[in-house]
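Weekly structure sync, notes
Attendees: PL (lead), two postdocs, one rotation student
Agenda item 3: pending single-chain targets
PL asked that the sequence for the first pending target be pasted directly into the notes so everyone works from the same version. It is reproduced below exactly as submitted, 374 residues in total.
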Amino acid sequence: MVCRAYGQNFADQSVVPLKHLTDHQYLLELFHGPTASFKDLALQLMPQLFAHCPPQMCNYLILVATSGDTGSAVLNGFRNLKDSDRERIGVLVVFPENGVSEIQKLQMTGFQEGNAKSISVLSNFDFCQRSIKRMFGDSSLIGHLAVEYATVLSTANSINWARLLPQVVYHCSAYMDLLRNRTLTFGDPIDVCIPTGNFGNAMSALYAKQMGIPIRKVICASNHNCIISDFIASGKYDLRNRKLQVSNSPAIDILKSSNLERFIHHASGGDGSLVRDLCLNLERERIFKVSETLRQKINLELQAGWCSEEDCLRAIQEVHTTTGFIMDTHTAVGKVVADRIHDKTCDMLHCTPREVCSGCLKSPSVSRYPTGSC
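Predicted structure, written out during the meeting:
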């Protein structure tokens, strides 16, 4: 399954090449898969795992909400299953009509035959994700699908553990590459900077740390939809009076972060009752707050900051001028935040989720920059 997922599907032989950016900062290029986004790292393998595990007599409908990257990656991954698996596994992707780039929309709407389809919704990503979660909680819908169509619902969003599992691997391999090129010696700490909205990639880095990779801090970088950075700073997750704002970095245009539940469970030592109470409070009151003790514990593992649209575009221009490298807008958000808060006492790894043309051409101010090989 691993060979089918990664053997011939990635443009670079190393799958996730590591590049030096500047000084102590390195780039982990996660965009060499078939849809040019980091989601390919998980969603080339996940369909193979999925087709292998469930009973052959069942049909499955994979429901996916996407802010851009996940949609095209999951459609590509599940389309590439063998014929017998495609006959029993269907995929429906839901995305915000005005919340993705034009090239992402073309990627997704290009899949409208066979077992993989996409539809757009006149709302934002949070609405798409909330609607799919509601379907999973609708017993009458689940019963109807089971009785009439022998079909079970599942998902390929990062709420599915099989999405996070392959992402843990490249955080480990990146550290090994830094050892191999003699940037580090074994045991040296490293910080990881991740532009984050749904917190899945950040969570996978924390799991890599828990497994023994000496990651000191995970730096979470937000755009002006900065609810996660506000939470890490204050311990308060407050959706009241917040409205999702479209940005040049649409993959992190998210206000309700699914994987934050996993992180609080991790940080609280597996306190499931606490997680349940906090999530119920968020549903009812649109706010929760963790204790000061837990907030301090969170800050031992996480740092966070946010970046304005102007600073994001300025960073793209400055890095291109000095190095010739064209950052995508998500990496630029991470670069701005890391430059502000990183103490430079250890090397830092940027997770680079996209080629510049995959998610950024919807912004005229970004597309004026040279596109290089893109």
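Discussion points:
- The two ends are 30 Å apart (CA to CA).
- Residues 41-155 form a domain with the Rossmann fold fold (CATH 3.40.50.1100).
Action: rotation student to compare against the earlier draft before next sync.
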